[in-house]
Amino acid sequence: YQARVHHLVQLIKESGKTVALTGAGASTESGIPDFRSQDSGLWNQVDPQKSVSIRALKKDPQSFYRFNFQWWDVCLQAKPNACHHSLARLEEQGWLLGVITQNIDGLHQRAGSQRVWEVHGHLRSCHCLHCGRMFDLARLKVEYHCTCGGLLRPDVVLFGDAMPEDYYTAEQVLSGCQLLLVIGSSLQVQPVAGLPRLARRVVIINHDPTPWDESAELVFRESAGQVLADVVKQLGNNTGPY
Ligand code: NAD
């Protein structure tokens, strides 16, 4: 393990442009279950494609919001863990350009990361499907209709949605990327699962196998928080190219 951490530190030092791509596994150490690990409670009983889809929202908004607030509330109350703190530190020290995240929990920003691209949206707001008016997400706890009567939807990407602007920015950010750290993502949700092709080298930090393991420079099965904290420790007070 130490040899692989050392190797990763060398790759970061050699790279002129390093970016992180995080998934739900970056936040499990904060107590938020992911979708695809075995025994992650909520998601063993339901199919996310069905319960987190625009179709489900339109069909039965009450059930949609009752179900989704079960895990959104966990996201909203969670605190950043060693993975988020370490990525914020790497950015602060100039080793990391920023974080592309599939997570909607906002924990990277809360840990201090400045450049975060939220390719699956966030839990800060919602808007009206009819007139477009925006509200805080909290409004949905008491009312899921707009003042105009239209249905409110959260600003998270649901199955069946188009990708938000941050996704296209993320593709641009990856142009010329020499090292992509994929952290806590099963890389099974498209189009994000295809982003590693845009980077020259890929390092995977994920408990379970991913489709990119074979072409990756390095693979860690250890916990994201531990691996990244060890990387930060080894880099010490040295500063990077940013
Ligand atoms: P996923 O559930 O498909 O995969 C998570 C991966 O992380 C798994 O392969 C698991 O082995 C690994 N993992 C779990 N804990 C880990 C740890 N501590 N260290 C290393 N690896 C760990 O997640 P995904 O690829 O992000 O796709 C799920 C989708 O669901 C995303 O699009 C995301 O928007 C959404 N989601 C978000 C949150 C959140 O915001 N925190 C939580 C659940 C789901």
Automatic annotation (TrEMBL):
Keyword list (alphabetical) reads:
Metal-binding, NAD, Transferase, Zinc
The record's annotation in Gene3D superfamilies points to:
SIR2/SIRT2 'Small Domain, TPP-binding domain
State if NAD is listed as a keyword.
yes
MF annotations from Gene Ontology: histone deacetylase activity, NAD-dependent; metal ion binding; NAD+ binding
Show the active-site residues.
H120 (proton acceptor)
Q: Where in this chain does the record put each Deacetylase sirtuin-type domain?
A: 1-238
The organism sits in which domain of life? Bacteria
Instruction: Report whether NAD shows up as a keyword of the record.
Output: yes
Which Pfam families does the UniProt record give?
A: SIR2
Name the positions where Zn(2+) binds.
C128, C131, C146, C148
Provide the E.C. number(s) assigned to this enzyme: 2.3.1.286
Q: Which PANTHER family match?
A: NAD-DEPENDENT PROTEIN DEACYLASE SIRTUIN-5, MITOCHONDRIAL-RELATED
Among NCBIfam families, the record links this protein to:
PRK00481.1-3 (NF001753)
* Record protein name field: protein acetyllysine N-acetyltransferase
Q: Which organism is it from?
A: Desulfotomaculum nigrificans (strain DSM 14880 / VKM B-2319 / CO-1-SRB)
